[in-house]
Amino acid sequence: MPTALITGATSGIGAAFAARLARDGRDLVLVARDGERLEAAASGHREHGVSADVLVADLSTADGRDRVVARLTDPDAPVDLLVNNAGATQRHRFLEADPAALLAQHDLNVTAVLQLTRAALPGMVERGRGAVVNVSSMLGFATGSSSTYVAEKAWVTVFTEGLAGTLAGTGVRALVLCPGFVRTEFHERAGLEMGEPKGLMWLDAERVVEECLADLARGKVVSVPSPQYKAIAAWMDLMPRPVLRRLFAVGERRRNR
Ligand SMILES: NC(=O)c1ccc[n+]([C@@H]2O[C@H](COP(=O)([O-])OP(=O)(O)OC[C@H]3O[C@@H](n4cnc5c(N)ncnc54)[C@H](OP(=O)(O)O)[C@@H]3O)[C@@H](O)[C@H]2O)c1
Fold first, then answer.
1. Cβ of residue 86 lying under 6 Å from some atom of ligand 1
2. Which fold has domain 3-256?
3. DSSP-assigned letters across all residues of 105-117
4. Beta carbon of 140 within 6 Å of any ligand 1 atom
């Protein structure tokens, strides 16, 4: 079976991708920073009879990204599905955030997506098959927030939509996944107080992944899991940018009080 490389494969959405793809019989390459956790995840996936390699890499560093690029461009071990999933945010507002931490976040959320996609695609196009799934966010549709995370996810969404057009007719696809709130370690890692993650607006990672892979099979370019978030995305599409900007600015001002 074609091999899938998943970044951020030890937790949340990335772990759900790995579990589902292993059940489908895909060989895996799992990327994250915590080697022990990667090994534990890989041995679980091997129970499905697939191979699961681990690649310890910090994607916010050039060295970490280079190691993943080397694996993606290995002609003897082609990767036909790249899931750029690893991502992070932080609770500090732009003017208070540590500039070095902002740059590291940018390199994880943007530079790694660009560099890994650029490395993986030539081989896929040459073979005439494959796909890149980039994990963005509903927040990528937002405008008027000063969060660099929002701008980074907007970049991932626009970048992937453009890529899908470029790839037309090559046999290779690009899809951007734009989830709303998902129960993972994401908010806790960022130190964000979210309250109890329950109710209509909180989704399970497994469901997000199921809907994403179904959308990929259907040839969709943008995947927004769940009817509730589809409705919000459609509403945001209809809103003029100045209105959205004002709405988000009001939210920001309330947060700043
Ligand atoms: N949860 C949500 O509500 C939500 C909503 C919309 C979009 N998203 C997006 O979904 C994606 C996955 O997030 P999640 O919610 O599943 O988060 P999560 O549970 O915190 O998982 C993050 C994964 O990324 C890895 N990772 C973090 N920093 C890394 C780095 N510098 N280099 C390599 N790997 C790194 C982590 O492993 P290590 O710590 O071992 O490296 C972990 O495997 C992200 O792109 C996020 O922006 C999440």
1. yes
2. Rossmann fold (3.40.50)
3. HHIIIIIHHHHHH
4. no
